[in-house]
Amino acid sequence: MGPILHDLAAGRLGFVSENPTPVSDSPFRSEPSARDTAPQFVLPMVVRIERADPPARTDALETAALAVLTILGDERSAGDGEWAQAMRDWQDARIRKVVRRARGAEWRRAEALPGITVTGESAQVRVFPPVPLDGWPKDLARLQVSGTDLDDPEPPVDADPAAPVLWVNPHLGMTAGKAMAQAGHAAQLTWWELTDEERAAWHDAGFPLAVRTAAPARWPELTNSGLPVVRDAGFTEIAPGATFAVEGVDRIRALAREERP
């Protein structure tokens, strides 16, 4: 079964056609830019990790990517929507995402705050509109960031050849929380590569995508072939550098062509 998108009622899709990330000023690059002088915001995400039933790592990464796409496509994030100004302010600066973990009553308090919950095969991730770096709601600020690590009980199956693949750098040891944030970055880069029509077709198909770890021998090919690449600014955990490469944007475009009457 594919992901279930909660709080996405009919008509809640609001695509923004402008691309806020010119290649020369990517918010995912480590080089200083004008984005560093803008007020800094962060996109909060919370992953549900119950002690007795934690989600699989790959599913958590894929669900985080889907959560980012969901809030980007929500009508509340566009135009005069209630989250639109916060989304614009966030995208004018560095595109920061932070994943915290919750269980039990913590998760229920997080679900009571404005946001969207996305459910994958075993993972639940709730994404919230951006907040200032020092302006987290208290029920989110008290949640833990460190220690968010997960495993795959079984090796992930081969990715669907018809869906885009977000390839993880095999040379980095990222916690699950850090990797989820980076998967969200990769999904956002993919979103920005598309037209409104292509975004709508991807949404209508349920945002098919896969997250997989690249073979070490293939990583240089992925990062040097012109594909969208997330280059982390190095604020947390890892040194600045490439963390994800996106392959298969053309597959989404093909999906949009198939949707045309």
SSE blueprint and pairings:
Elements lengths: L3 E2 L35 E8 L8 H17 L10 H9 L3 E7 L2 H7 L4 E4 L4 E4 L3 E2 L5 H4 L23 E4 L7 H17 L3 H9 L5 E4 L5 H5 L5 E4 L8 E7 L1 H11 L2
Parallel strand pairs: 2-3, 7-8
Antiparallel strand pairs: 1-4, 2-5, 2-6, 4-5, 7-10, 9-10
Rounded to an integer in angstroms, the radius of gyration calculated over CA atoms is: 17 Å
Helix content: 25-40%
Instruction: Estimate the mean pLDDT confidence.
Output: 85
Order of helices and strands: EEHHEHEEEHEHHEHEEH
Helix tally equals 8
Shape: globular
**Quaternary structure classification:** single chain
Distance between the termini: 27 Å
Which regions have little confidence, pLDDT < 50, spanning 5+ residues?
Answer: 1-13, 15-25
* Largest sheet data: 6 strands, mixed
User: Which class of secondary structure composition applies to the elements?
Assistant: alpha+beta
Let me know the number of strands.
10
Question: In what range is the share of β-strand residues?
Answer: 15-25%
Characterization of this structure:
There is one protein chain. This protein has 261 residues and is an alpha+beta fold. Helix content is 30%, strand content 18%. The chain is built from 8 helices and 10 strands. The protein has helices at 57-73, 84-92, 105-111, 138-141, 176-192, 196-204, 219-223, 249-259, and strands spanning 4-5, 41-48, 96-102, 116-119, 124-127, 131-132, 165-168, 210-213, 229-232, 241-247. Strand 4 and strand 5 (124-127) form a beta hairpin. Helix 1 runs parallel beside helix 5 and helix 6 (196-204) packs across helix 8 (249-259). The two termini are 27 Å apart. Mean pLDDT is 85; it is low at 1-13 and 15-25.
